[in-house]
Specification:
- The protein is of the alpha+beta class.
- The protein has two domains: about 260 residues, no CATH class; about 80 residues, no CATH class.
- Strands 10-13-14-15-16 form a five-stranded mixed sheet, covered by helices on one side.
- It starts with a strand and ends with a strand.
- It holds the Pfam family AlkZ-like.
- This is Winged helix DNA-binding domain-containing protein.
- Keywords: DNA-binding.
Length: about 375
């Protein structure tokens, strides 16, 4: 009979796999590969993800990997912006293309009825060949050929139909503005078609396991994965959670000891740990999830003893040369000292210049 893993054990195991029980000394590229991909819908998000996981992490450590092309930013898991090692992007991007195309159809299907998508993809490749264009520039160029078509639909269709990445300075710390496109195969080399989903399942379990087939679907955006897990079943470990849901893990992996201490950790918006499971009770309560997961967004979270205890936000007053980090706790803590100390360290990373202030209060109070 399969071993039952309680929520505390599942929480500790997830934190261990995610480098959140103890900051790691591994190089940035190894950390990105271990985590498979990092949320990058805002350029600062990968920096927060790595700061909270790596010992002595500096902004230039990640920026350098974008510049040398060992890490790239582009549409990936769930059709959203992520950064991944170039070696992983080459095979994950073709694997998740159905998600990108389905998202394009959901958003722009009505205004693109009758479009020849293969013809559009060929035109996009031709326009981007050997050069960089922003989405508005690309949409404008496409509209010159198809003046009656919706420009927004043309621009957004491009990244769903053609593998593209966004070269730096896009994706670097505090860099916003129009997103540049380059052809992925020109930036990092040929992509790998025909990779089986089993490869991504194994990588997911290494980073987030033990987990269920539904958990993997939530994280990746891929659907109908039961058959894939069935093919993998003979080579995987099997567990149950407290609700009887079957969980899978790699054969060489082991659950963490639930007695290991879990230090305070600040996770940025959309951190994939918060999006990696259909059942997120190993990390938060159902009531907390309603506050944290709002629509397609996930607020930045505070972990104390391995579970979500609050949300946080950094506010900048650049004219006055000040930055403040405000924490809203869901419940009182016996000792706020570790939270305040970690918040002060995060402010030093995110806003090294000027004065700092840490504020800790209760959620829902002014």
């Amino acid at each position: 009979m399969a071993r039952v893993l309680d929520r505390r054990t599942l929480s500790r195991t997830a934190l261990e796999r995610q480098l959140l029980l103890e900051r790691s000394a591994m190089p940035v590229i190894e950390a990105v590969q271990r985590l498979v991909a990092l949320q990058a819908q805002d350029p600062n998000l990968p920096y927060y993800s790595l700061w909270t996981r790596l010992d002595g992490f500096r902004q230039e450590d990640f920026t350098g990997r974008l510049v040398d092309r060992s890490v790239v930013r582009g549409p990936l898991l769930r059709g959203t912006q992520h950064v991944a090692a170039a070696a992983d992007y080459r095979w994950v991007r073709p694997l998740v293309e159905p998600i990108l195309r389905a998202g394009r159809q959901a958003a722009f299907g009505r205004v693109s009825v009758g479009w020849d998508l293969d013809e559009l993809a060929a035109e996009v490749r031709g326009l981007l060949k050997g050069r960089t264009l922003t989405r508005p520039q690309l949409a404008k160029a496409l509209a010159e050929r198809w003046p009656d078509r919706d420009r927004q639909a043309l621009g957004w269709s491009a990244q769903a139909l053609v593998p593209v990445v966004h070269p730096p300075p896009s994706g670097t710390w505090n860099t916003h503005g129009a997103t540049p496109f380059v052809l992925a195969d020109e930036w990092i080399g040929p992509l790998e078609d025909g990779v089986a989903a089993e490869r991504l399942v194994r990588r997911y379990l290494g980073a987030f396991g033990p987990a269920s087939a539904k958990d993997f679907q939530m994280w990746s955006g891929l659907r109908r994965m039961d058959e894939v897990f069935e093919r993998l079943r003979p080579g995987l470990q099997k567990y149950r959670d407290e609700n009887g849901v079957e969980l899978f893990d790699l054969p060489e992996a082991a659950p963490a000891e639930d007695g290991r201490p879990a230090p305070v950790r600040f996770l940025g918006d959309l951190d994939n740990l918060m999006l990696a499971y259909a059942d997120r009770s190993r990390l938060m309560t159902a009531e907390q999830r309603k506050v944290i997961c709002v629509g397609a967004w996930v607020k930045p979270t505070l972990l104390v003893d391995g579970r979500v205890r609050g949300i946080w936000r950094i506010e900048h007053d650049r004219k006055a040369g000040r930055a403040g980090l405000g924490v809203e706790l869901f419940e009182p803590l016996r000792d706020e000292g570790e939270v305040r100390a970690e918040a002060a360290r995060l402010l030093e990373f995110a806003a090294p210049e000027g004065e700092h202030e840490v504020r800790v209060g209760m959620f829902g109070t002014s």
